[in-house]
Amino acid sequence: MSSTTAKTGPAGANAAHPVPDRHGQNLFTTDTELHRLIALYLPPDLARHMQPHFERLGALAGGPLDELAQTADRNPPTLKLRTRTGIDDQKVIKHPAYVEMERLALSEFGLAAISHRDETLGWKGKMPPLVKYILTYLFVQAEFGLCCPVSMTDSLARTLKKFGSPELVERFLPRFQSVDFDTLAQGAMFMTEQAAGSDIAATATRAAQDASGQWRLTGDKWFCSNPDADFAMVLAHVEGAPAGMKGVSLFLLPRQLDDGSANHYRIIRLKDKLGTRSMASGEIRLEGAIAYLVGEQGRGFVQMADMVNNSRLSNGVRAAGLMRRAVAEAEYIASERRAFGKRLADMPLMQRQLTKLRLPAEQARTMVFQTALALARSDGGDACAYPLLRILTPLIKFRACRDARKVTGDAMEVRGGCGYIEEWSDPRLVRDAHLGSIWEGTSNIVALDVLRAIKREDSLTALQAHFGKLLDEAAVAPAFAAALRDALTRACALAATATQEGGDVIARQAASALYHTCSAIAMAWEGSRTGSAQRIDWAQLVLLHRVLPRDPLTPDAVPADWSAKTPAPTLATA
Questions:
Q1: Parts of the chain with a pLDDT under 50
Q2: Taking all residues of the chain, what is their mean pLDDT, rounded to a whole number?
Q3: Quick one: which H or E segment has residue 431?
Q4: CA–CA distance from 358 to each of 8, 127, 355, 373, 426 (Å)?
């Protein structure tokens, strides 16, 4: 039986009803694959310490948090421009359900501050990034929209620590380390302009120093999520600086000035979005707004890229979480729903459909764990880890976010007509899933960034070495190991070709090849280390159906010599 079909709470009580409802299940305790991975990737003492916190968040995500998310999605934020007496006093009015989710995410679980504190959730010392991402992975299965401000707040603090002056860090960082809901700060990044989306060189916002030497920003920012954040990182072209990228600098923009008055910028309107409706996104006009230069003048793109890359990794984590929720819902429905005298889960075609949903969800989960470890090593000073992190980040952002769009849509179909009704989670998952492949760089931009990492950081060498080592350690059938090794060699060769003159036309193909091959290797390694034959089976199917060529007019199956101990799994190609 699937790990998601355990009957607990209301879901168990309603098991006999013809319309299955999983609401009330604990999204952590029912996810046994996650338990295996935690035992593999986290130190035992830390895993034991976090167990009750994972269980509590899993219970919230399966019930109360999911209800809050549904309410906030139906009651999006509004913009109030003035008081009733005519005083300009802009405020984003958030539904109480959203505010309660903010409290849970930012204060109770410290999702934005956890990487910047010496003690969180009772754990003394720095918490590894993977803990934050596991918590986010659970939280996002209920609420996606708020996870964008959470990620930006975390990323802003990271960028401030890395590039800000000691005075700037000392002055502002404590608010990003706080988990006191009344004093903590939220962050944002205001980068996009009407003519300057991913083309940072086209930034039209201007920065100039006034008579007192204070920097002031003027211009329009076109897409600003969390527009009422306490602080935002903003890109602007410094007056008198060279044209293009070398003239763009990074600034920290406070919402309030030292005297408590509002800074000199206005939210013009809020966006009416397809998804992430719970969270406000707006257009902002900077009218001589006071800001602080972050890092070296003229290095704005490089500094903001660090923040964007951190947000891209968070995007991948969120996509993995969305897929997990969608797949778990589909598995539960198939287990509990009966038609034509039998359970859906016992029907061969449904079994194949569910497997096709599981593969990209499990690939993304594996790549989250692998990338989080690379981040921890890189932040710990391991110079060899940075090139690996530099390529894994755009890979997971590119492929996992694209996969989430299809997985959430196909999982909605398993629920049938109810899946198309807004009372259920499916429509919200589908709408939210489309954000990942757009925000922080569209698919083309991120695929090209994979090539940039290869050319500038020699990341392909690091990638091949890392996953080659995992393959050496994986106890799998020799024929399967050989097939994985050959696929890795060929995928790396394709990526190298893509970096040549005119090769960027195959950037997406090369990025997909690397992602699928590396995830298959890592899943095989995980399966052999945890004793999960199922995970090795999934790795085989990833290689067979997402990497190797096949004849769509011929039934296919995993080669017998790939697995000597278990029957070869099959999967429909349609």
A1: 1-9, 12-15, 566-568, 572-574
A2: 93
A3: helix 426-433
A4: 22, 29, 5, 23, 16
pLDDT at 292: 98
> What distance in Å separates the CA atoms of residue 490 and residue 496, rounded to the nearest whole number?
10
What CA–CA distance (Å, rounded) separates 574 from 569? 16
Place of tokens 């620590």: 161
Alpha-carbon distance of 135 to 278, in angstroms, equals: 20
Q: Where are the beta strands (DSSP E) in 255-376?
A: 265-270, 281-294, 338-339, 342-343
Question: Which contacts qualify for 115-123: CB closer than 8 Å, 24 or more apart?
Answer: 115/154, 115/157, 115/158, 116/154, 116/157, 116/158, 116/161, 116/173, 116/176, 116/177, 117/177, 117/179, 120/179, 121/49, 121/50, 121/53, 122/49, 123/46, 123/49, 123/50
Q: Is the dihedral of CA 358, 359, 362, 364 positive or negative?
A: negative
Burial of 311 (0-12, 13-18, 19+ CB in 10 A): buried
Structure tokens at 490: 């060929």
Give the orientation angle of helix 64-74 with respect to helix 426-433, to 10 degrees.
70
DSSP notation for 398-411: HHHHHHHHHHHHHH
Facing residues of 251 across strands? Answer: 234, 293
| The residue type at 441 | G
Query: Which pLDDT score, from 0 to 100, does residue 305 have?
Result: 85
What's residue 564's pLDDT? Answer: 65
Strand partners for 121? none
Q: What's the pLDDT at 1?
A: 37
What stretches of 146-285 show up as alpha helix (H) in DSSP?
Answer: 147-163, 166-177
Can you read off the two tokens belonging to residue 504?
């960027």
Chain Cα centroid distance, residue 394: 11
Look up residue 104 and give its two tokens. 């849970």
Give the model's pLDDT for residue 571.
56
**Would you say 516 and 539 are in contact if contact means Cβ atoms under 8 Å apart?**
no
Amino acid 97: pLDDT: 98
What are the residues whose beta carbons fall under 8 Å from the beta carbon of 297, sequence distance 6 or more?
A: 238, 241, 249
The confidence score (pLDDT) of residue 308 equals 86
